[in-house]
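User: For this week's homework, look closely at the record that follows, marking any run of repeated tokens, and judge whether sequence predicts the tokens.
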Amino acid sequence: MTEPPEGGSRRAVVTAPLAVAGLCLALPFAAMLWVSSYARTGPAFIGIPFFYWYQMLWVPISTLLTVAAYVIVRRHERIRKAGEQR
């Protein structure tokens, strides 16, 4: 019979912060894959059809959501490691 690796075997646990981080990463994909929600020309914004400015709006939104997910995961890892050291 094989022995578990040194330090014991750890099971991956999905906690609320990790679920929120996953949602932050999945939201832009869902928004861009749902093409029928933005496949139209109106309303225009400074002469740019809705189809284009909606997609460009998601660039900074995706950036902010990715940063939020990164911060959440890093904070979660820091808390988890601090709990293991005790």
